[in-house]
Amino acid sequence: MKILLTNDDGIDSLGIITLKAALSGIGDVTVVAPLFEQSAAGHGITIKRALRIVKYYKDDQFFGFAVDGTPADCVKLGINTIMRTPPDLVVSGINHGSNTATNIIYSGTVSAAREAAILGHHGIAFSINSREAANIDTLAPICAKITKKFYETGIRDGLTINVNFPDIPASKIKGILLTRQGNSRFEDEYELRFDHIGRESHQLTGILADLDAHDAKTDHYALMNNYISVTPIKLDLTDYDYLHELEKNNLGEIISQSN
Amino acid sequence: MKILLTNDDGIDSLGIITLKAALSGIGDVTVVAPLFEQSAAGHGITIKRALRIVKYYKDDQFFGFAVDGTPADCVKLGINTIMRTPPDLVVSGINHGSNTATNIIYSGTVSAAREAAILGHHGIAFSINSREAANIDTLAPICAKITKKFYETGIRDGLTINVNFPDIPASKIKGILLTRQGNSRFEDEYELRFDHIGRESHQLTGILADLDAHDAKTDHYALMNNYISVTPIKLDLTDYDYLHELEKNNLGEIISQSN
Fold this sequence. Notes:
Two copies of one chain form a homodimer.
Chain A: E1 2-6, H1 14-23, E2 28-34, E3 53-58, E4 61-67, H2 71-82, E5 89-96, H3 108-118, E6 123-128, H4 136-153, E7 160-165, E8 175-178, E9 184-187, E10 190-194, E11 200-204, E12 207-210, H5 219-224, E13 227-233, H6 240-245, H7 252-258
Parallel strand pairs in A: 1-2, 1-5, 2-4, 5-6, 6-7, 8-13
Antiparallel strand pairs in A: 3-4, 7-13, 9-12, 10-11
Helix pairs in contact in A: 1-4, 2-3
């Protein structure tokens, strides 16, 4: 099986290095990843300038292709320009930090896997619930097993698999929960800073507050209870219930009054 | 009513200038928009550096606050730092170019309105189906009417309203259709370019191919048939049907075999 591997922490992060090693046991891995960190890049793509690709070496060995763009750019460019034959799966991660609940909307890691779905391929995103990723060595082999399983069973067109790990040794993992995306809210704070010549600037701080982590069906519940969380996400953002409810609003009046 | 107005084309674009004028007839408008164009920024936010805010003047008159960040940054900073009292509605646009179908995932305009929902507020995104936006003067008053209508009726928590206009005179608009997000696929092409010192680089070209524009329930169908399209979108990306289907996959085996 052919795997396109990317991430958002950058091509020299522990997460992608460890995951490449684990995935190499189950397939041919081509790494196409951002040269520099792209955390919180969301599903941005680069349209105003041309992208550059450089070969990146680790310990004097060719490791992969580094791109001066976003995670979604890496998937587009990887499939279109770098790989000679299309990948069977696109894998993104392992991200340093969880991508659960509303947070996945900001996530470059999840967006990269989702870009595969937009292009008619399939993607899986892996994240671990801490910046340090202390237990990544014991968890990466499980990523490889999950990847292999989805390669064998297939993923429905248009869908993306979002996987999160608690940062505990594999032996302590209680199991895998199929979860829904939880609900969280960013409680923003901007801290006033002064730049190198004393001008005011504003640094985002603040926390992401979980609104339904008590609900055993959610992704953040799974992590807090030592389970791996697996959530299928889709491209269609329409709220169908509210679509029907909006019929009551008589928006049509606006046009008949305007004409 | 208090309106926070933003966009992704930048604070000096015709779309936001025209929309500010139209919305000023129904409320107090505070403009907080990117200083430079942020098209295709997706739902990226700036976390690695502090943001700067500069007052932007048009024709020697104060027009709004320009931010060196993404559209979603503008909404966060506008609500948290710039506005003294929270807005009743966040409005984004008018975008030069439609934001329909899968394309909305890349859209800075739609993401800005959606950021309002993440913060516990409500947002509406407006786009017009051409770069030139030739009929924007006759269409902007309809944006104001739609905004007023949603202010009066309210928007359900967590939802965002995505509105697209065909670029035709208001008198030719056939009506408003409540639509679902259509399905489209980016048929990527990267054009080989050479930079200022002759190094290879890759410029994204290619087209977004509509896969279901024949379906009268979709947003792109509405535009092609001279209707305004109104689509409610949500924050929860979970595919619940597939979530149940995944139970058959026995992912749990992976962990029992690992331990």
